[in-house]
Design brief:
about 20% strand; 7 strands; 4 helices; alpha+beta; four-stranded antiparallel beta sheet; 2 domains
């Protein structure tokens, strides 16, 4: 099997970074401007929401900058299996002997590749924290914890027709 390497899209990661900056400014607006305006809403709730916007935008910005400078391919497919480095929830290497099926779905406008494996719990045991919670939620909804989002990849989706 010919080795296929799909790079990360720096352009898409830069757009993601710009989006996170928009979230930051929305959070700042909530904290600085909305609190000063006489509102029927509780100012503490507005400050908490603004703080959450700022916190999430900070995490998104850090991830975006990390991925912009990440020189590793987003996805590698070879005779050994699939190596996923496409997102924050990427699991890493998945050997072919663990893969039962590949399923492609379009959820809203995002193309997703679900990797159904023999032992999903084995892959869940490899991760902890938020990543584990995210993979469990994906498993509950789609019957597979392993999902490759094509959002961050610079790819031609037609290559998947052969696999």
């Amino acid at each position: 099997m010919e080795k296929i390497e799909i790079p990360l899209s720096r352009r898409k990661m830069f757009l993601f970074l710009l989006g996170s900056l928009v979230f930051f400014f929305i959070g700042m607006y909530f904290i600085v401007e909305l609190v000063d305006i006489q509102q029927p809403y509780n100012t503490l709730i507005i400050k908490i929401i603004g703080g959450l916007f700022i916190l999430l935008s900070g995490l998104m910005s850090i991830y975006s900058v990390y991925k912009i400078f990440d020189r590793n391919p987003g996805l590698i497919i070879d005779e050994n299996g699939i190596y996923d480095n496409s997102s924050a929830s990427a699991i890493g290497f998945i050997p072919w002997n663990e893969i039962v099926d590949l399923e492609m779905l379009k959820v809203q406008s995002i193309r997703l590749i679900f990797i159904h494996v023999k032992q999903p719990d084995f892959f869940l045991a490899k991760v902890t924290g938020f990543k584990k919670s995210s993979l469990k939620a994906t498993m509950d909804i789609y019957d597979s914890p392993l999902v490759i989002s094509t959002v961050s990849l610079k790819y031609s989706f037609n290559i998947w027709k052969n696999y």
